[in-house]
Backbone:
């Protein structure tokens, strides 16, 4: 298929206003005849279509790679993610990804990461822990119901009138 459509029957599918007070609007168009879609960038100040580059909305493109020393600092420093992000010139999400082991996990493996509590659970264990079950009841003892309820076990706790969570 060609990179353009020669038909004049088109409709606007979506519009997008650029951030930071930009005068550029992006229109996503679709041909009513052949279904071809394309984007048009329109400058409202110049009142004409314009070519835009990736950096046209004045946002810095941050592809900064952290050094091993910076990763070590992030893992050991007690400051907040926002503070460290300003220090290293990255986003607070990048700092959080280092701290949770989603990024740079091969660097400094001996340093602790802050995984969510259920990180090491299997999918079955995660599903089981989110449901109310007899094992979390204060009356559950040595694999049996301490009140001798015959139906006890599994998810019966959802229906049990004796169910209590041990605080």
Residues:
């Amino acid at each position: 298929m060609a990179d353009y459509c020669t038909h004049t029957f088109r409709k606007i599918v979506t519009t997008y206003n650029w951030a930071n007070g930009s005068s550029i609007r992006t229109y996503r168009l679709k041909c009513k005849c052949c279904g071809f879609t394309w984007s048009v960038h329109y400058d409202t100040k110049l009142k004409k279509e314009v070519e835009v580059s990736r950096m046209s909305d004045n946002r810095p493109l941050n592809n900064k790679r952290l050094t091993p020393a910076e990763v070590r600092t992030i893992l050991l420093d007690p400051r907040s993610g926002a503070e460290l992000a300003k220090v290293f010139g990255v986003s607070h999400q990048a700092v959080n990804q280092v701290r949770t082991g989603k990024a740079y996990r091969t660097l400094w493996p001996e340093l602790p990461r802050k995984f969510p509590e259920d990180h090491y659970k299997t999918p079955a264990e995660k599903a089981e822990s989110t449901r109310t079950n007899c094992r979390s009841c204060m009356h559950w003892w040595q694999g049996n119901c301490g009140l001798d309820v015959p139906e006890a076990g599994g998810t019966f706790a959802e229906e049990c009138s004796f169910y209590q969570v041990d605080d």
Summary: The radius of gyration is 28 Å. The longest strand covers residues 10-17.
